[in-house]
Write a structure and sequence with these properties.
By secondary structure, the chain is mostly helical. The protein is built from 6 helices and 2 strands; from the N terminus they run E-E-H-H-H-H-H-H. The chain has one domain. A two-stranded antiparallel sheet has the order 1-2. Helix 1 (26-35) packs across helix 2 and helix 4 (94-112) crosses helix 5 (118-128). The radius of gyration is 17 Å and the shape is globular.
């Protein structure tokens, strides 16, 4: 799979674009390594794009990617997932909900001619889209992820290690 590696100079006067090739499953593995989220390739690519956007918006290009990923997980991904009412959590897997909220947010921003905040888009998505969807058959680990909003990570800097109260 071909992709572009884009670097912009600090003053914005120079942009370097370099094509690069990645192997199948690259994005899924990278997202899993950074966040502990096990997703399909297209979902992973979209979530990583949002993570990269978060990193740029918060001016953390110099910060270790794993640290920024944890911050994105706790400040962006988890608030969206936990905003979904318990009775609607069987509608979609957590990563798919986040993916669809990003789509909803983009369309809402275009429609309203402003950047719609993530949680505002989440509430709109829940009201206008999610309530009408049929339930999906989800993996048990996904159901557990969506019900873990009050659990503490074993290592907050490495979400892939699971939760502190998980048995070894």
């Amino acid at each position: 799979m071909a992709e572009l590696d884009i670097h912009t100079s600090a003053d914005g006067s120079n942009i370097r674009i370099q094509p690069k090739v990645v192997d199948a499953g690259h994005h899924s593995r990278r997202l899993l390594r950074l966040t502990g989220l096990d997703t399909e390739e297209n979902q992973a690519r979209r979530l990583l794009n949002d993570l990269d956007t978060f990193r740029a918006r918060t001016n953390q290009g110099h910060v270790d990617e794993a640290v920024v990923a944890h911050q994105w997980l706790t400040e962006c991904f988890q608030p969206v997932v936990t905003a979904v009412p318990h009775d609607l959590r069987g509608k979609r897997e957590a990563a798919q909900i986040f993916h669809e909220v990003l789509d909803y947010r983009w369309y809402a921003s275009q429609r309203e001619h402003r950047e719609v905040p993530l949680l505002e888009a989440t509430w709109g998505y829940i009201q206008e889209v999610l309530q009408a969807l049929p339930d999906e058959a989800m993996e048990p680990t996904t159901q557990a992820l969506m019900s873990n909003e009050h659990r503490q990570l074993a290592n907050p800097f490495d979400p892939s290690q699971g939760f502190a109260d998980d048995s070894a």
